[in-house]
Amino acid sequence: MLIDGSLSYDPDSNQDLTYIWSVMLGTENIPTTAIGNGSMTNLSVDKAGTYSIRLTVYDGDLNSASLERSIRIIDTNPVVEANFGDIKITQDSIIIEPEELGPWEITAYATNTGDEDRIACEWYMESEIWLQGCRHVIHEWPLGDRDERVATLIVIDNDGSQSSTQFKFTQQDNTSDDTLVFLILSILTLLLVSIIYKYRRSNFTIPKWSPKG
User: Fold this and answer.
1) What's the chain's average pLDDT?
2) Which fold has domain 80-170?
3) Which burial class, exposed, middle or buried, applies to 43 when counting CB atoms under 10 A from its CB (0-12, 13-18, 19+)?
4) What is the pTM of this model?
């Protein structure tokens, strides 16, 4: 953030002025970078909150004047992106056990400008903590002998704001394959029964009764 105090002047002389900047966030002193003769400064803003900015200007006789203003930086929740291997994790997505064996990489990151390298990640299975940290390598499929588990990813930025994403891990789903086989067998069975029935009707004969002598 560029802050400009170059419009300051001394009505009594044309002497050069000296500029002293002070920036506070709560009780924390925030460093600034002077530009040129010091009339402008760069303020690095990486936290939300109210910044108190004070400029004191001195003339050659050390007479001074000060001006103080506040700037409020409003925080936004982190925008989360995550991946399990090549699979993108989104809200309510379902991750089926891959055919290839592990290890698999699971990662999370925030896409807010400035928050990329200042986030913490917590991964839960149901209500229990599973992983801590934004990047992990998983060597075993996380379900064990379970068919399905609900996972939650919580991403927290350096201001304490957080966003979450919930998704599911499931075992490989063979239901569709079994259903297809069942349907094919059923159709073949019906077709065979139809052919046999048609054949019997087309070859149905009535025996001839010989007259009694």
Assistant:
1) 85
2) Immunoglobulin-like (2.60.40)
3) middle
4) 0.61
